[in-house]
Amino acid sequence: KKFFMFTMDEATKNAEVVKKLHKTLRSKVKKGYPPDEVWANLLKDSDVLSEYSKAMSILALQYWPKDTSQSRIKWAYNVCLEYFYNGGAYKSAQKYFKQQMYSSLEKNIVTEYEKLTIESELRIFERDWKSLITEKIVLLDVGSCFNGFKEFNEFLVFPIDIAPATQDVYKLDFLNVAFKEVSQSFTSDQFTLVTYIRDNLTDSLLLKAVFDVVVFSLLLCYLPCPEQRLKCCINAHISLRLYGLLIIITPDSSHQNRNAKMMASWKNALEGIGFVRYKYTKLEHFHCMAFFKANETNILLWEKYSRFLFIPQDFQEIKEEKVDINCSEEKFSSNYNIEELIQVCNLSEL
Questions:
Q1: Does residue 123 lie in a domain region?
Q2: Residue (of 139, 151, 168, 165) closest to 74 by Cα position
Q3: Which one of 85, 148, 153, 343 is most buried, counting C-beta atoms within 10 A?
Q4: Coiled-coil region(s) at which residues (predicted)?
């Protein structure tokens, strides 16, 4: 393609920096090192994080195709507008409540009280659903790198990353974040709420149930084990207000049905912890999913769902091989598809 007629040296070097780190983390976990220990050691290695952050931002800003029809950032933007401003939230919740009631009736397990409760919840939502249409959409972009959503005026963005590439991204480890309850008095209007979020956001603290949207753009696939992926999804559930959106984008350059079982498994895991799928789209290089937070669930039941959040690399054998960061174009292209690797190895595109 014409787009890839640039000199390959810098592109391949930065793509390999990213690929090497992900592979190293997975390899350590497979060898038996505790995942939490592997992650903690990564956070302490400022040199590795700095190199990784720089590589990611270069790939995203300089080598990402400008085809907006295949842009995952634009996909997330359009889904948010549809959900919050064009009736998507109302239709989804209405469908969800009715499915809950009819499913229970078909199984003959619903009591009259439960039926009345479901109907009451639907009426309450029908009365209050317009509160979801906020002045602006408060969005938490996890693994943001360089704040890829800042161009959209409809969003109030809180970008976070363990290794920010720009000064407008907060440094925060979402995997191990603590949550703080929010007093009702701080949620009375959006300005007060956003100010309170900003004032309380530290490198280890977020507010509970205040975000309209949480975005995982190529985040889960970079974590080395299913348990950490589930923990991030649980933290997203805690971060979101009721009926807020979790947007998950994960790389896959194969045809839509090749990894259909994996996508079905992810859906089962997320629905098991209190989400309901709102939308799914397969772009050329990505699976794009949106889920809304439907209910609060029993945290004791969440652990069993971690095994569903697998990726193909979880099943690959450990190979002891040294990655040559300074590999030539000829050597690199003999082992990898450069276009696919660059597509996968970045966090956000313009």
A1: no
A2: 151
A3: 148
A4: none
Q: What is the CATH number of the domain that holds 290?
A: 3.40.50.150
Q: Is residue 168 part of a domain?
A: yes
Rounded to an integer, what distance in angstroms lies between the CA atom of residue 161 and that of residue 201?
A: 13
* Whether pLDDT at 76 is above 90: yes
Helix pair angle (260-272, 226-239), 10° resolution: 50
* DSSP annotation string for 150-165: TT-TTEEEEEEESS-S
Which amino acid would we find at residue 37?
E
What is the DSSP pairing of strand 286-293 with strand 275-282?
Answer: antiparallel
Closest listed residue to residue 274, CA positions, set 227, 249, 242, 308: 242
- Distance between CA atoms of residues 12 and 343, nearest Å: 12
Which residues have C-beta within 8 Å of that of residue 95, sequence separation ≥ 6?
Answer: none
Q: Under 8 Å CB-to-CB from 7, ≥6 apart: which residues?
A: none
CA distance 142 to 266: 18
Tokens matching residue 155: 């969003």
pLDDT in tens, 312-336: 888 876 554 443 333 322 332 333 3
Q: Tell me which residue of 151, 158, 164, 141 sits closest to 216, measured CA to CA.
A: 141
3-state secondary structure 289-334: EEEEECCCCCHHHHHHHHHHCCCHHHHCCCCCCCCCCCCCHHHHHH
The reply to whether the predicted model has a pTM over 0.90 is no
Query: Residue 155 phi/psi, 5° resolution?
Result: -105, 145
In three-state secondary structure terms, 115 is helix
Is there a domain that residue 233 lies in? yes
Number of structural domains in the chain: 1
Looking at every residue in the chain, the average pLDDT score rounds to: 81
d(CA 160, CA 150): 13
Q: Which domain holds residue 246?
A: 72-87+129-315
